[in-house]
Design brief:
Number of helices: 2
Distance between the termini: 36 Å
Structural class: mainly alpha
Strand content: under 5%
Radius of gyration: 19 Å
Number of strands: 0
Amino acid sequence: MFCSVDALQAALEKWIEVWNEQARPFRWTRTADQIIDRICRYCDRIPGPAH
Protein backbone atom coordinates (compact mmCIF):
# COMPACT_ATOMS: atom_id res chain seq x y z
CA MET A 1 0.00 0.00 0.00
CA PHE A 2 0.99 3.56 -0.53
CA CYS A 3 0.84 6.09 2.27
CA SER A 4 0.73 9.11 -0.01
CA VAL A 5 0.14 10.24 -3.55
CA ASP A 6 3.84 11.06 -3.80
CA ALA A 7 4.77 7.47 -2.89
CA LEU A 8 2.35 6.11 -5.49
CA GLN A 9 3.68 8.50 -8.13
CA ALA A 10 7.28 7.53 -7.38
CA ALA A 11 6.42 3.83 -7.66
CA LEU A 12 4.65 4.37 -10.98
CA GLU A 13 7.54 6.39 -12.37
CA LYS A 14 9.99 3.65 -11.34
CA TRP A 15 7.80 0.96 -12.93
CA ILE A 16 7.63 2.98 -16.18
CA GLU A 17 11.40 3.44 -16.15
CA VAL A 18 12.03 -0.30 -15.71
CA TRP A 19 9.35 -1.22 -18.29
CA ASN A 20 10.82 1.14 -20.88
CA GLU A 21 14.27 -0.40 -20.55
CA GLN A 22 12.96 -3.48 -22.40
CA ALA A 23 10.02 -1.98 -24.23
CA ARG A 24 8.73 -3.72 -27.33
CA PRO A 25 6.37 -2.23 -29.88
CA PHE A 26 2.77 -3.34 -29.63
CA ARG A 27 1.73 -5.63 -32.46
CA TRP A 28 -1.94 -5.93 -33.40
CA THR A 29 -3.03 -9.51 -33.98
CA ARG A 30 -6.60 -8.75 -35.07
CA THR A 31 -8.09 -6.43 -37.67
CA ALA A 32 -10.21 -3.49 -36.59
CA ASP A 33 -13.31 -5.30 -37.91
CA GLN A 34 -12.52 -8.38 -35.80
CA ILE A 35 -12.08 -6.24 -32.68
CA ILE A 36 -15.31 -4.31 -33.25
CA ASP A 37 -17.22 -7.53 -33.95
CA ARG A 38 -15.96 -9.03 -30.70
CA ILE A 39 -16.97 -5.92 -28.73
CA CYS A 40 -20.45 -5.98 -30.30
CA ARG A 41 -20.91 -9.65 -29.41
CA TYR A 42 -19.80 -8.96 -25.85
CA CYS A 43 -22.20 -6.01 -25.53
CA ASP A 44 -25.07 -8.25 -26.72
CA ARG A 45 -24.34 -10.70 -23.87
CA ILE A 46 -24.00 -8.35 -20.91
CA PRO A 47 -27.02 -7.04 -19.03
CA GLY A 48 -27.49 -3.36 -18.37
CA PRO A 49 -28.59 -0.16 -20.01
CA ALA A 50 -28.52 0.23 -23.76
CA HIS A 51 -25.07 0.77 -25.22
